[in-house]
Amino acid sequence: MKKLTARETVFVGSMLFGMFFGAGNLIFPVSMGQMAGSDMIQAAAGFLITGVGLPLLAVAALGISREESLLELSSRVGKRYGLFFTCALYLTIGPFFAIPRCATVSFESGIQGMVPGVGPTGGLAVFSFLFFAAVLFFSLRPGQILTWIGKVLNPLFLLFLGVLIVSALLSPMGVVREMAPQGNYASDAFLTGLLEGYNTMDALAGLAFGIVIVDVLRGLGVKEPGSIARDTVRAGLLSSILMALIYFFVTVVGAQSRGLTGISENGGEALSRIAVHYFGSAGDIILAVTVTVACLKTAVGLITSCGETFVKIFPKGPSYRVWAVIFCGLSFLIANLGLNAIIAYSQPVLMFLYPLAVTLIVLTLCARFFGADRRVYLWTTVFTAAGAVFDLIRALPDGMSVKVLLSGVTETAGRLLPFSEQGFGWVCPAVFGLAVGCAVRKLQGKTGRDARGI
């Protein structure tokens, strides 16, 4: 049985780190640190579960499943569901939220401060147009420049981030224990941090891009599903430890920054203020350039992945070039809503998709205990979705007519569903659905219903 060597493990671990860690991921732990204050350790613990641990399990689940894509894996629930879930997931980590966020994070993490004479709305419009023009150019003409960016600019960004973190630890802007937690962090920092990890979207990305890592392992001679999962976890521990350390220390820096900057509107603004404090205008310029280039690379990768996936899903539809143009245009329009709006509107979607992703991951990892039976997948997913709908509605921005109209329904669900107030109203329905699925399997018989046979 083939096992990865130490060198191969480091290689796969570095690939996993490059896949999951992007400049945009920094805005959430720094913002979380500012809000959590003295309760940042509890918040960080929750964040690391959904921001680091869950993405790793997503890749391992895809390796165990023996499926070739997310569409095949999610089709274990049903073919129509598989199509819906795959499209919804790629659009979420693509042109609806993650790709526009790349442009807005770049703009607010330094670019905005470099052009003080231009209003934020006009400045974002011009910057995002240029940003997505470059994204489209490289998406249609992939070449060595992306490799150069990945091998040179990303390490430079991490180096700058390391210097920034060390500077903050040696000369803190405030005392963390004196910073009172704000908002939901004051009542339950751990669960709030757990939900904050949703914003990284890395668990969704793990399901979407995990096949890349699985193919690498197979190319290295690891063939058995169990071995693939084991080696993925082993290699992933390296990337997970590094990501966890970065997330934790950025959270610390965010909490300390409240001493001088107060609570910023979002993590992009907070990063910019911190960089200026320690390195002056030069720090703002370095942060702006490295974040922009890193986000550019991420956006190109997402456009390419989304375009290629939609070509495969809809073979009689538009070509890859047409999809790339559509996704870039849509991303440009959504980016101009601003970072705060993108985060606000992405949260309800993530509150719905993440529970479905979590149950799919867990069921796949435990499939051997119920024979990968479609009925277990189906009943668990149906009840999970029903519970997640209430979490979606509750997470809608205040004032939306749908939220106001259904406020009575969500209040009733909040009283009936445990953990609903904390954003986890889907957990008990998911467990109930799992029990129903297992009971149906036992009553109707265990043969002829496995997910792979659908």
TrEMBL record:
It is a multi-pass membrane protein. The keyword Transmembrane helix applies. Component of the transport system for branched-chain amino acids. Belongs to the branched chain amino acid transporter family. Pfam families: Branch_AA_trans. The gene is brnQ. This is Branched-chain amino acid transport system carrier protein. The chain crosses the membrane at residues 9-28, 40-60, 81-99, 119-140, 152-170, 203-221, 233-255, 275-296, 322-345, 351-370, 377-396, 423-440. It is found in: Cell membrane. Keywords: Amino-acid transport, Cell membrane, Membrane, Transmembrane, Transmembrane helix, Transport. It comes from the Bacteria.
